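Hi R.,

Here's the chain you asked about this morning:
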Amino acid sequence: MNQVSPIVAVQSTLEKMADKFKEALPPHIDVNKFISVGKLALNKNPRLIDLDRNSLWQTFMKAAQDGLLLDGREAAAVPYKSQVSYLPMVDGIIKLMHNSGNIKTISVDVAYTNDCFEYEKGSNAHVKHMPLLSGDRGERLAVWCYVKTTNDGEYIEIMDMKQIEDCRKVAKSQNVWNAWYDQMAKKTILKRMAKLLPKSDALNTVLKMDDENNYREPVNVTPSEQPLSRLKQSIGLDESDASVMANNLIEQLKGQQEFRKQKEVDNDQQ
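And here is the predicted structure, written out as tokens:
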């Protein structure tokens, strides 16, 4: 009898969870595309299947609930110690900002010392950035973000590299920063910009969870009574097991969201 490889078993389980992903996904995202992109992510980084399997399923379910593809641009599944960590990326945050219905234009980039970069504060505040298209762009100078809202409000944020470095130093995902420094720097200023703008509940949830997962001590969301042995198996699950597991994950995530909402209410009342 031929033994099923771990990667094939995991991909098979993802297919069995399709109905649950479909329930979590926004209507405009095709579940087959979501799963196909997820399979590609696993093929590109097969180490993910050797990590805690429950954290892998949670990463996929969180991405589905947020309406983000795990393609490395909207969101990524990244190793963190023995876990798989869910990481919303630049395109994903921009997508959620647009989905709020309050944003007309978003621009964000990293300026280098040999680029043409101009920034002015005050009543005539503006930013002008012309990247050097050939040759050495020099060292990173600053990260900027410009947003125009649907009511024609304009917002500009600038962070110098010391400010970016201060954020990087307290991040848990140092390997991600090393691999995608500019993308993480852009994400940092986008999150800062988002605090100034009207946010949808979806964006607010994603930003808070990203802070908790990547800039604080990890939160253990697995109930102590849950049978971890089954979740750590490297074989596939039958359809009933996959459905039960998906339902458990959904309930866990709902519980986390309710806990955060109650904590905010308690803080407001203090």
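One quick note: Residues 101-198 form one domain.

Cheers,
M.
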